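Blinded run. Sample ID left blank on purpose so nobody reads anything into the name before looking at the predicted structure. Input follows.
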Amino acid sequence: MPALKSLFEATSVAIVGASDDPHKIGGRPIAYMKRLKYKGQLIPINPKNDTIQGLPAKRSLLELDAPVDLAVVAVPDAFVEKVIQEGLQLGIKNFVVFASGYAEINQQGIDKQAKLKALFDGTDARLLGPNCLGFINTETQLVASFTTAMEQHPLKVGGLSFAGHSGALGAYWLDKTIRADIGVSKWVSSGNEANLSLDEIVAYLATDSQTTVISLYIEEIRHPEKFEKALKLARKNNKPVIALKGGKTAAGARATAAHTASYPLKGVDYQAIFKRTGVIEVHSLSEMIHCSQFFLGGHKLLGNKVGIISISGGAGVMLCDQLEEHGLTIEPFSHPLHDKIKPLLSDFSTVQNPVDLTAALVAQPNMLRDTTRQLVDSNEFNVVVIFMGLMDSVAQQLTNGLLKLKNNPACPVLVIWMGGQAALLADIAKKGMLVFEEIPDLVTLLSNVKP
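Blinded prediction complete.
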């Protein structure tokens, strides 16, 4: 995908409509890239200023000495077509258009988008948008976007990428990655897709060396065969794809038409495509983040067998019910495992799955570590779930015990700790164990990733 590589990995960028105000649409990309020390060349374009945010500015694209890799077009829709024409005349191959007012509003907008699209016909130049929030590449700190998600915090560099039709929803996704301390690779808002569509972006991410997990927000699948081919490429390259699908009802479809000129109810069986390509469909951004964390941690759920350790008999009952309702199994211990676990427990505990450690854990905090180790090493389970609540007086000791456990990719350990101390939960998460506050969140994750 050399064309998309030159777009998403551009080493020279012109911001058309650049502003000296770092809070305006034409000022944000410059402010972000200056703050984050973008590794490429950054050129503001503004007909009225010689300098923008301390950088030498040009009056128009035609004043450039040579084509840049990317022109970010941050001007009102009335001026977009002229800017694109000038850029194409200069030989620029990649454009991002923020402006709305195209096919998403009315027939006049549809006609205007058709004219914009026609500018690229017969060329190898590419357009992301219009009506989009642009894109981000953390590897080079290229921020061709005016999203507000990064105002307070930069993105952590990592392997999780996002592409989707909604810029705002994508911004909320960015905020969640920041709060969850997840490293991001690429972030792309495709908007109305007048020229560049989601299937091509997925194909690029499927071959991107920095991307290890792909998350998507999809309204319309415009090119089903190409989209399925891109998803199969991601699967071939061992990159899990997690998707949030919008526009599944008549009301939702009407909303997508006004949002990104998408028409999702056009006969494309997206569920069949997902099934054939192994895409995990989720129903919220929180689910998407949990699934991403699971795969980014190197975990795989190779089967449906769950071992449960709890300090609450009631929580153990709830876990059993909800997990089995979602297709997972809670099987009894084998006799050898029973005999290994029994000496670790108090006289009040019954040796069964789920194991109820009871309040005796307060006096014997190592019981949690030792019991967990036996379940993980037994090869009888595909995942071990721990439920705890409060336990402030021994919380540090319990955490220390969990941190001493060896990682077993074939049997990940997931923790629910209601009322746990934030700092300790963060330490557990850094170990690679996913931490949840509520039972349903964990159950939903396992339901999503089960084979």
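Unblinding after everyone has recorded impressions. The longest helix spans residues 77-90.
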